[in-house]
Structures are given as structure tokens and as C-alpha cells.
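Data availability (excerpt). The following record was deposited with the supplementary files.
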Amino acid sequence: MNKQITAILDSADSHSLELTSEAEITLGLLTAVHENSDHTQRSISKDLGIALGLANAYLKRCAKKGLIKISQMPPNRYAYYLTPKGFAEKSRLTAEYLSQSFNLFRLARRQYEDLFQHCADRGLKRVALAGVGDVGEIAFLSQGGHAVTVLGFVDANASTSTFLDLPVATDPSMLERVDALILTDLKNPQESFDALQSVFAPERIFFPAFLNVSRRPPPSQDEGESP
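Predicted structure:
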């Protein structure tokens, strides 16, 4: 199964998740296609741990829904591309999956502690959290014991100027000398990461595995056209 999806599944209690296996498989498939358009049906079935016939059925279903584009390539090969609609569905399923996990706090806290330590080890000690909300609060609570300082939050859509007694900025440049950004947006993590890349060095933007974010660029509108 895709490594990011595996990180979610392995770290959560499967009995506390309400999403159906259909949604889980769809999320895994969309993530696999986004990460590698050269995937074959066989490699996708292996990554997701499902039968080849089932992988084929889900690929066709996702193509029919306009979530992926299938292009034939010689000799007798197919390439799979995530469409903008599929990209949005991948983000929606990720947020829904995580919001229904009773173990989100434990999972998030552990992974954010690791990210704070990673920043400290690299000398990135002035950190801003990207995303106001419950996950941002969990991340803030996870900084204790690490040689980093949380300067504030970055959130272009925030309706408040402060959160947890820290300033909330619409752009990282509004906070003084930010060394690194740590993503804490649960609602639209991929979209937030893509937007932040245009205003901040991508190599200094970090995110926990459970947010299921990819560093690959989002699909263009051309990729959403039918073959």
C-alpha cells in the first residue's frame, strides 16, 4: 500500500474509523496515481494490497467519475493521471478519514513532536504553524522540550488575528524571520501546501505523514481533459 496511506492506517485504530473500505481504496488509489503516473494496474493492486481485478474496477470507476485520466501509451501500456477533480477528492477523503479517527490527537502529537525535533536538528528554530484550528493547537502543544520557538500561525483564510495568544498572519513574510513552516491545516492540507510553496522555500515547509500531502505539483487543467 502507498506509504502515506500506510502511515495513516498503521497509526490509527481501525475500529474507530467510520469510512468504508471503498473510500479507503479510492483514497489509496488516488494517492498512488498522484505520486506516480507510471503505475500499472498490477503495481497499484500490490501497493494497495487488493486483487488485480479489484484495482482494475476501481480505476475504471474513478475514470468514469472524472477523478483520473487514462492515456494509452505504446506498446500496450497505460498512463494514469489525477485530474483536478480527483485532486480535490483526494484532499476531501484525507480530511474525512482523519476527522473520524478517535486517535487523531495521539497520532498528530507524535508526528508533530518528530517535526519539531527535525527542525531543531537542522537549526531551524523559528517556526510558524500553517493552519489555524484543532490540529494547529495539537501541534502547538507538541513543541515542549524541543529547541524551537513557534512565532505564530499562517492562515490566509483565518477570521482571527490571534490564536493561542499568538499572531495569525496571512503570509509568512508578516512574521519576523521565519526559518520553517509546519503544516497544520486539516481541512485542505494539499491546497495549503501548494499555495505556501509559491511564497516560501518548499524545502523548509514540513508536514506530518498523516496529512497525506504530496510534494508533487497539482494536476493542471489540461490533465483533466478526456483522452
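Summary of structural features: Residues 8-20 have pLDDT under 50 and may be disordered.
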